[in-house]
Amino acid sequence: MPLIRGIIATLFASAAFSASAQTGGGNPNLRQATTPVLTNGVLTAQAPAPTTNPPGASPTAPQSAPIQVDESALRYFAAQGDTRRVDAEIARLRALYPNWTPPTDLTQLSTPSGPQPDAATDKIWALYAEGRIAEARAAIADRSASEPQWKPPADLISALDVAEARIRLTNASDNSQWRTVLSIATETPTLLTCANVDALWRVAEAFSKTNQASRTKDVYTYILSNCNNRSERLATLQKAVSLLPEAPILDLLKFERKTGTDQDDFSEVRDELARKRVERASTDPKLKAAPEDLAVVERLAEGESAPGNALLLGWYNYHHAQPEKARDWFKIALDRDGGAKAAEGLALSLRALNQFVPADAIAYEWHDKSKDNLSVYLDVITALLSQDPPLRVDPEIIARSIPVITRERFSNGGQALGWYSYNTNQFRTARDWFMKALSWKPDDEPSAYGLALSYQRLNDRTGFASIANAWRARSQQIADLADGRPGTRLPVESQPLTPSRDEIIAVQPRAEPIPQPRAAPTQRAENRYPNDVPTTRANVPRTQAGRGAKCTGTGNPHALSPDAAVTLGWCLMELNRPLEAVTAFDQAIKRGNGRTRQDAAYGKSLAYLRKDLTSQAAIAAAEAPQEPRRQVELSATILAQRAVAAYRAGRFVEVILALGERARIVPEQNDLMLLRGWSYFKLGRYDDAKQVFQAVQRTGFSNDANVGLNAILEATQPIRQY
């Protein structure tokens, strides 16, 4: 039933997230130790020296008797020529048997006293090699049932256990279930080998996310001490950079192999550390980067086509009073598609260099790309218009600034337009802009002073008296002006910039109402919790819907024959107008008989199901007797929708009852089994939930089932001292 499966997939993701959030992400007071070795649930110390023992494998005393090791998997992988899995199997066997030595001849792995070749067992190993773990388990169960005397090789069972543990650990890590990651690693120490570096990385991250940075370092130390893959060693350092402070990373860099055939090259990690040091200083003028670190970032910037390092150098130089260098780097970043941040930095650098006109050009071009760019543009245009003596400004620059300043109700911009108009002898325009700036910010004293000066130059005694009386007690400048003493800012009398008629028109404030800035559209929150699910829809049988596929769906059902009304109903269903289809099906039910009435009741029930009206659908299904196949289909769908609706409403007992009733008439599908499992989980019935999730796991849906199993482990395991 596709209609239910899509909904339940959303529910499961939500339930997993909710379970992790409810149980917490880790204990910050976990015990600290010195190495990443996990044995029997406890992390034990181990010196970080090269060794063949993987994490979790304790040294054992020499054995006098020969070690009997099942090497069938090794033989199989060697026969297949799969060298990667041969190496992984050798690492796994070494973890299980520390004193075991791999055979020198991989083509002769079986011995008279050891396991003999077995084609059926090899097929199970093949399933394991292909990652088909559930099928391998099923094959073992089938053979055990048909051959009671046959026992699966212990190494095969161990390999499957480790593979399943790896899947669960990965799943827990992907869902940020950090305590579960550490618990699985503790229970499966053979998973933590150089053959499974990804598992080690995830354990290191789990330590970091549970506030155990020293344990994170220990895991990385183990990898660098024992694992030889050059790319994985480099990746280990790169992951360390994202999780650890600089001091432990410098310690890890000491493991760089500079001799031998597999030499490391950790230079890019050192470059990244230098970059981070420059980045920390790029926004703090009190921090100064070392010249050698700046040289590294400059080398990186010059050798790439991406804008990142050029942007970094731009911001560093801007905040350290070197606007010329900042301008040059921001230009480079902008040419490399650095976007809004590069334009923002370039405009600020040009402003710092008093290059107001080019600063305005770049700032205006990008002013609508982000809030930061808008803020920079308003700052730049204000500075441009506020120069004293005033600069000659292109009327187009002023004209295009007015809508932005007005829309944003930016009082400093309105004041700047007022001073520019005043200083170019446009006193009426200046008066209007100062008044507008005061309307946006009533306590703006400079705008009030500008308004008083404008009234004075216009010889408007009434206006001057009103502003002087209102501001005399709050502004010494205005009080001095009213008392006849000279103010601090007077009109520029010598060599005024006489504006043209076009300039005068350009700076007139708009008479129309000021538009308010629109709020940014809200983004719909993710359906992260199990109660936030989309509306369910029932599937319309294609054979029925196809009957009306070419109709327009505009007929009047009351004027149609019963058969025509049924056809119209299916047409409306095809057009996704289910409630209108109900009206058409109703007419057929009332006036039809036999097969027509049966089809109409069936269609009406499906129409209600499409709108999630489950109760009405059940009533409609009973309005005419249905053939057994349809009756089962409708009953199963109604019960499934009831279960989903009950889960959405948090009525988990009803979910279990509805699914139990449904399971009596049709086999239970995996998605509904998972819904049952999550309902048990929500009710705290963890053993029941575990049984359901394990049953789903055995059918091959291991990923979905593992989410539930990990959630149970996260909810039930005690807070351990890892």
Describe the structure.
It is a single chain. Residues 1-37, 39-64, 110-114, 488-543 and 545-549 have low confidence and may be disordered. The chain is built from 35 helices and two strands. The protein folds into three domains: 40-255, no CATH class; 328-506, Serine Threonine Protein Phosphatase 5, Tetratricopeptide repeat; 542-668, Serine Threonine Protein Phosphatase 5, Tetratricopeptide repeat. The relative contact order is 0.08. With 722 residues, the protein is mostly helical. The chain has a two-stranded antiparallel sheet with strand order 1-2. 62% of the residues lie in helices and 1% in strands. The two termini are 44 Å apart. A hairpin with a 2-residue loop joins strand 1 (37-39) and strand 2 (42-44). It is flat and about 115 Å long. It has helices at 2-23, 72-80, 83-96, 119-129, 133-146, 154-174, 178-187, 197-209, 213-226, 230-243, 246-252, 267-281, 291-302, 308-319, 323-335, 339-352, 356-365, 371-385, 395-408, 411-423, 427-440, 445-457, 461-471, 476-482, 501-506, 542-545, 562-574, 578-591, 594-610, 614-621, 628-648, 652-663, 670-682, 686-698, 702-716, and strands spanning 37-39, 42-44. Helix 14 runs parallel beside helix 16.
First-residue to last-residue Cα separation:
44 Å
Mean pLDDT: 78
DSSP, total strands: 2
Number of helices: 35
Arrangement of strands in the largest sheet: 1-2
Strand content: under 5%
User: How many structural domains does the protein architecture include?
Assistant: 3
